[in-house]
Amino acid sequence: MIIKNNMIVEDEWQVLRSNEQNTADAITVPEGKVIVPLKVWHAQRERLLPRQQQGEIGVLFSSEERPEDLKNDVQGFPVIAVDFPVFSDGRGYSIAYNLRARLGYSGELRAIGDVLRDQLFYMRRVGFDAFATRPDRDIHEAVKGFEVFSEVYQSSVNQKLPLFKRAHRKGKMSVEALNDRNH
């Protein structure tokens, strides 16, 4: 199960992890919908391209990889996942923001790994819309992480205008009236 668009849904993707025993070009990518590490995508691009075009291949960024490494292919993926190896590693936030804001990625952006309830609200702010929480945590409790704050002040990926531009105020107070009020 994953959280997608603030709802708990069945996860139809499997995540392929690389290991030291296999090189990126030697890893076998199983059938079905698979999220492959970025290194595997680069090493097997020609083989995987037809499956990507059919919507069966996603890509996984590790925290030390850069979104620019995928800039020519980014729009072709139905899902891009970003790994959080530990909850205190914030590099995934920058990867997500850059995928959305600089590269214009509009597909599913998924946070995986050490993803906790306390992070979900902030992850959504930088562009994540799907979350694979830690398996040892209650996913139903994690969804409540979106309700922590009712309003945001700053602009970000999921809210383009800051609060002062969204707020509707009744009447305007003149500078003179404001000065009189403060004295």
What key attributes describe this structure?
TIM Barrel, 183 residues, 6 helices, alpha/beta, eight-stranded mixed β-sheet, UCP030820, elongated
Provide the fold topology.
Layout: E1 2-4, E2 7-9, E3 14-15, E4 34-37, H1 38-53, E5 57-61, E6 79-84, H2 91-102, E7 108-113, H3 117-125, E8 130-131, H4 139-143, H5 163-166, H6 175-182
Parallel strand pairs: 3-4, 4-5, 5-6, 6-7, 7-8
Antiparallel strand pairs: 1-2, 1-8
Principal-axes shape call: elongated
First and last CA, distance: 59 Å
Oligomer: single chain
Largest sheet: 8 strands, mixed
The CATH class name reads: Alpha Beta
Poorly predicted segments: none
Radius of gyration: 20 Å
> Structural class, from helix and strand content?
alpha/beta
- In total, the number of domains comes to 1
- Give the % helix: 25-40%
Looking at the structure, the CATH topology is TIM Barrel
Q: Let me know the average pLDDT.
A: 86
Placed side by side, the strands forming the largest sheet appear as 2-1-8-7-6-5-4-3
At CATH level 2, the architecture is Alpha-Beta Barrel
Pfam families: DUF934
InterPro entries: UCP030820
Q: In short, what is this structure?
A:
By secondary structure, this protein is an alpha/beta fold. It has helices at residues 38-53, 91-102, 117-125, 139-143, 163-166, 175-182, and strands at residues 2-4, 7-9, 14-15, 34-37, 57-61, 79-84, 108-113, 130-131.
